[in-house]
Amino acid sequence: MSFPGANISSDRRHFFMSSAQLEALEQKEAMEKDPLRQKLGSPIRAGGRILNFEICGSDTAVLALGSHQAKVADLAARECRRNAAKHGGPTTSVAVMSESYTISGSRLALSGAWDKQIKVWAVDDPQRTLALLVGHSDFVKCLVAHPSLPIVYSGSADKTVMIWKLPESPDDLNNNSGDPVEITPFKIIKGLHTGQIYTLCLDPLAETLYSSGSDASIRAWDALTGNPVASQSTSDDDDGYWIIPRGQHKTNIFDIKATDNSLWTASADKTAIGWDVETRRADLILEHKTTVNCVLPIPQVGVVVTGTNGGVIYLWNTSGAGDTPEIIREIHAHTDDVTCLKMAGRVFYSSGLDETLRVWDIKDIVGFKGGIEYVPKELADLERQSRSGNTGHGENSNIISGIKSGQAKQSSVLTEEEERELAELMSDLDDL
């Protein structure tokens, strides 16, 4: 029973909202109805907000969903499998063990969630929990698996980083009792980070583990022992340990990625920063207009990809850019925040709070010459259809006219220098 005149609507417009909030809501709803955005990046629809994902081989991805589960996506069929690993809260992170660590031919995956649990399960049978990693006292925020050893790293809102050793033989997880094997941490790292741990990554040789989070500092640990990496400098700021202290980043660091000689971080302070690992100084700073949630360096071609609040993906040319890297492409596909970026061969994947996982061919995007905003083949086909058969009426005609005007503003003849830079990037892509 409701009181006379009571507002029982679920429409957000019926609640108090500012003009700016109403305008943003209307723009988001318009984007969700845009048939072009529904096709961009060949989206896989997960049925829940994708908070994190990991590519598992050439045809599979593991997704961490805000809907309290981890799902397996079939990349070829462009759909999620029905069975899922269940959690008692939003699933924030996933990881996949090495190709050699399998049970009955199936790769093993891990998922961490707000329920403080880390579950180990077979990609072919996500409903059965093989092992529980028990030790965190607050939300699990991030997971990383060692590329060749049965070692897992986790970060949590309890301000700790934990290192876990799984059995040398994965068959030891496949016990006959049906109950999951309980595993405790091999190493607990605590007391140096003063805030929640949001992100972890290993360097390309898997020798060093980097961690960061809400305290906006970056720390380094020996990937096998968990001991702090010693500093090579005599700075008063590091107490003898390798650290990039809070300062350049003013607030939360949400993502960190490592290349051979640099680190890249993404932050709520609206920047992505490339760091020199040896000097621990910022080499490149990519300024954005909103929070940067994720970053993906592609050093082979001198490109860095960033994902932001609001759904825009940016490609930056950092090859010989000096102090002024430039945006070479924008992708307007996700209709909500971009949450994660991962490379797989010559393509990269993006996920978002719009519940989609999308795939992008880096060569197609870098080589596109139609303007700053990436306009794929689907758009050209739709435009040709509108010219040949559309009378200018209806929903699609409004979309097409908007696109045409956007293209008119963006498209321009490349300068000789821009053509040369583009040609260099394209030649580098052949090595991927």
From TrEMBL:
<dbReference type="InterPro" id="IPR036322">
    <property type="entry name" value="WD40_repeat_dom_sf"/>
</dbReference>
<feature type="compositionally biased region" description="Acidic residues">
    <location>
        <begin position="415"/>
        <end position="432"/>
    </location>
</feature>
<feature type="compositionally biased region" description="Polar residues">
    <location>
        <begin position="387"/>
        <end position="400"/>
    </location>
</feature>
<feature type="repeat" description="WD">
    <location>
        <begin position="133"/>
        <end position="166"/>
    </location>
</feature>
<dbReference type="InterPro" id="IPR020472">
    <property type="entry name" value="WD40_PAC1"/>
</dbReference>
<feature type="repeat" description="WD">
    <location>
        <begin position="331"/>
        <end position="363"/>
    </location>
</feature>
<dbReference type="InterPro" id="IPR001680">
    <property type="entry name" value="WD40_rpt"/>
</dbReference>
<dbReference type="Pfam" id="PF00400">
    <property type="entry name" value="WD40"/>
</dbReference>
<keyword id="KW-0853">WD repeat</keyword>
<feature type="region of interest" description="Disordered">
    <location>
        <begin position="385"/>
        <end position="432"/>
    </location>
</feature>
<keyword id="KW-0677">Repeat</keyword>
<feature type="repeat" description="WD">
    <location>
        <begin position="193"/>
        <end position="231"/>
    </location>
</feature>
<protein>
    <recommendedName>
        <fullName>WD40 repeat-like protein</fullName>
    </recommendedName>
</protein>
<dbReference type="InterPro" id="IPR015943">
    <property type="entry name" value="WD40/YVTN_repeat-like_dom_sf"/>
</dbReference>
